Amino acid sequence: MTAHTYLKTAASIIVLAVAGLAIWQGMLDPSRILPMAVAALFLPIAGGGALSLVHLKCVDATRRSAALASLYKGIIFGGIILAASLAATLGGLLGVFDGTANISKRISGIIIGAVFLYYANSLPKRIASAKMQKILRGNGWIFVIAGLGYFLSWLALPIQMAGTVAIGIMAVGVAVVIIRTLGYRRACQPSNEGP
């Protein structure tokens, strides 16, 4: 099997897992049936719509394959976040642990940090010119540090302050990347002055 087939299979399994967890939770707590129905249908509808757009927009097979792989990864990561949150809430309903809302927030924050780390690590690996590669490498490092801070905030800090600290760390990282990128763009623009 190809990597594309593995991604497609994993995305399908995640979609089914999220739908199953949402339906199960809706059956245990009928007052939440509407939000759980939305959660169960979100990934199939959003993913299906995005897949159809990729097939319509990407005529070139190579570009279509790359776009589909990226889309499947997005569905997988989004599904993991939803599935973890639903599983934590379901665990609280089943009496596995107390503090369902806190566990759900913490798990979601940890997974979002891990996903951000994954994408930040892949940023410098994109093919680009030497100058662009330098800025991508620097921005990748900044995003890895910000993602690690976000991840560790949700992992180690008290839940009351984890969200604020995590978002603050991420905001600083994004601001530094924006400033670096704008500085790079200014440095690369040709000057209008003569010799």
Order of helices and strands: HHHHHH
| Count of the separate structural domains | 2
Low-confidence stretches: none
Shape: flat
Keywords: Membrane, Transmembrane, Transmembrane helix
What key attributes describe this structure?
0% strand; 84% helix; mainly alpha; 195 residues
Please explain how this structure is put together.
The structure is a single chain. With 195 residues, the chain is an all-alpha fold. The protein has 2 domains: 1-98, no CATH class; 112-190. The chain has 6 helices and no strands. Keywords: Membrane, Transmembrane, Transmembrane helix.
Short structural summary:
The protein has 195 residues and is mainly α. It folds into 2 domains: 1-98, no CATH class; 112-190.
Give the SSE map.
Elements: H1 3-28, H2 33-57, H3 61-93, H4 100-122, H5 130-156, H6 159-188
Helix pairs in contact: 1-2, 1-3, 2-3, 3-4, 4-5, 4-6, 5-6
